[in-house]
Specification:
This protein has 519 residues and is α+β, with helices and mostly antiparallel strands. Among the domains are: 146 residues, no CATH class; 78 residues, no CATH class; 32 residues, no CATH class; 83 residues, no CATH class. Helices cover 18% and strands 33% of the residues. The chain has four helices and 28 strands. Strands 13-14-15-16-17-18-19-20-21 form a nine-stranded antiparallel sheet, with no helix packed on it. An eight-stranded antiparallel sheet has the order 5-6-7-8-9-10-11-12, with helices on one face. A four-stranded mixed sheet has the order 1-2-3-4, with no helix packed on it. Helix 3 crosses helix 4. The radius of gyration is 49 Å and the shape is elongated. Keywords: Coiled coil. This is Gp58-like family protein. InterPro entries: Gp58.
Length: 519
């Protein structure tokens, strides 16, 4: 775990102290800091004059020297590995050049020595004794001993021994193969040649050099030290005889094989390739016969910044989507997590009943909008079950249905409550408590005359079906007395008409009593 060291300065003239506790200070001043110890680890907040703002703990800013020291150490270790590999490459190249130079040097030395021995002892020993094309002989001098056995039409073998070393040579006259074993005090060399192809093992104090068109190691191989190779292939077959392999070439590693599994209710089969290189891992589907071609889609990339179906992590039309770690598209904070897609984003429960999908913001706000929070989008669903629901100016909870501007609109365009359709209820109650009213006085207008002035019409609404919907009976706004018309001029006040009719009945009742002499 990294040790975070915070540094800073405090001025005696600054009377703003850091508050440490589970809750913020009651009367903060602008710039004041609060270390919230209710979280693990504690979080640092700053009062900007209106609200508390979380302060991001950036290790690089807290102790840049520490971070730089860690980066330098990592860079030094990385460079050390690169230097070691470069040194191995350099030594291997030097060893190869030295072996090739020694081959020429040894071949020339022993060829000259053999010829010298033969020249010195040829007449004395009678070098050739011919018998059906076969030849054999021994030549000896102060320089060394050379023996030669062979058949002129097939093979010839020669062994030369000097004070400096031994060399054994076997040459085929018919197929052109040539093998040489050379032993010196400081090296042993085994070499086979044909048509300029050389297979060779050379052991010397500088190292062991092995070369060949094909090198086959049958058995366990253990390497103590660094193993450097520009190209490594490990191959095998699965239970059905299909090829699979892992190849390492420089900084690239590819693992190839046959995939067979059931995935989200669907059966998936085919060849796939897993590639790791340049700081990312990629999974690709193969196409063609026996997976001979790497398909560009679908492909899944794993990087230190996130997971995506494109290398650059974009969510364009060519990609299914991306999960981005340390995302900063919606916030300057570096610890955000972004899920993006050029198509649908699906959160699905595979069980029909008895399971839930939870979204726990833990006190944070949930927005359905663009990254700038300037454009908000629709939420389409069947049922919203919540203790409190706020939508724009609309607010509802388990006991209230309110709107900040005093308007609730269901299918209509205006009015406090405007419903384009029938309203069915058990009881319609008009608020009438005295404490809710003002300017209370007796209504003295002639209600009977007011009722006589209103024209009652029969009508249908524009959406009604003729011959099916019965006509309505009522007033038309532009013909109705002003006492029963809504102040916005959009309709008539039914309850107002009821109370005016109530007053008219009282007036008529008073006249009846007067006429009957019972008033």
């Amino acid at each position: 775990m990294k040790k975070v060291v915070a540094t800073g300065k405090t001025s005696l003239s600054n009377n703003i102290e850091m508050h440490v506790g589970l809750t913020p200070p009651l009367y903060p001043v602008e710039g004041q800091l609060w270390l919230n110890t209710s979280t693990v680890p504690p979080t640092l907040w700053r009062w900007d004059g209106e609200k508390w703002v979380l302060q991001e703990m950036d290790v690089e800013k807290l102790d840049p020297d520490l971070v730089q020291g860690i980066d330098d150490k990592i860079e030094d270790l990385h460079q050390k590995v690169l230097d070691e590999v470069a040194q191995i490459d350099e030594e291997a190249a030097k060893l190869k050049a030295d072996v090739e130079a020694r081959n020429k040097q040894d071949d020339k030395y022993f060829a000259d020595m053999r010829q010298n021995i033969i020249d010195n002892r040829y007449e004395a020993l009678g070098w050739y004794e011919e018998n059906d094309g076969r030849i054999s002989g021994i030549a000896q001098s102060v320089d060394g001993i050379t023996t030669r056995v062979g058949k002129a039409e097939t093979n010839i073998s020669t062994l030369t021994q000097t004070a400096q070393g031994l060399q054994s040579t076997v040459t085929s006259i018919t197929n052109g193969t040539h093998s040489v074993i050379t032993q010196m005090s400081d090296r042993i060399n085994l070499r086979v040649e044909k048509d300029k192809i050389v297979s060779q093992i050379n052991a010397s104090p500088e190292g062991v050099y092995i070369a060949g068109k094909l090198i086959y190691l049958d058995g366990n191989v253990k390497v103590d030290g660094t193993f450097v190779s520009p190209n490594i292939i490990s191959k095998g077959t699965d239970a059905n005889g299909r090829d699979n392999y892992t190849q390492i070439t420089g900084m690239k590693m590819t693992s190839y094989g046959y995939y067979e599994n059931t995935w989200r209710g669907g059966y998936r089969v085919g060849y796939h390739a897993l590639t790791a290189m340049s700081g990312y891992i990629k999974m690709q589907q193969m196409t063609g016969v026996n997976g001979s071609t790497i398909s560009s889609r679908p492909a899944l990339y794993y990087t230190s910044r996130g997971i995506g179906t494109r290398m650059d992590g974009s969510g364009d039309n060519d990609a299914s989507g991306v999960i981005e770690f340390f995302a900063q598209g919606y916030s300057s904070a570096s610890n955000s997590l972004a899920l993006a897609s050029s198509g649908n984003i699906i959160l699905e429960s595979t069980y029909e009943t008895g399971s839930n999908i939870f979204l726990n913001p833990n006190g944070a706000k949930v927005h359905i909008c663009d990254k700038y929070q300037t454009k908000y989008y629709d939420l389409v669903c069947g049922t919203v079950d919540a203790a409190t629901l706020k939508a724009g100016q609309f607010y509802t909870n388990d006991t209230n249905l309110n709107s900040r501007d005093g308007t609730i609109k269901i299918g209509g365009t205006s009015g406090n409550i405007n419903i384009m359709g029938n309203v069915t209820c058990a009881k319609l109650v008009e608020t009438s408590k005295r404490e809710l009213k003002k300017n209370i006085e007796l209504y003295t207008e002639n209600a009977t005359n007011l009722i006589d002035s209103g024209i009652v019409r029969a009508y249908q609404y524009n959406d009604d079906v003729e011959g099916v919907d019965l006509p309505y009976v009522g007033l038309i706004v532009d013909e109705a007395p002003v006492e029963v018309v809504d102040t916005k001029g959009e309709g008539v006040l039914v309850a107002q008409g009821v109370w005016i009719a109530w007053k008219a009945i009282q007036e008529l009742n008073a006249r009846i009593k007067e006429l009957e002499g019972t008033a």
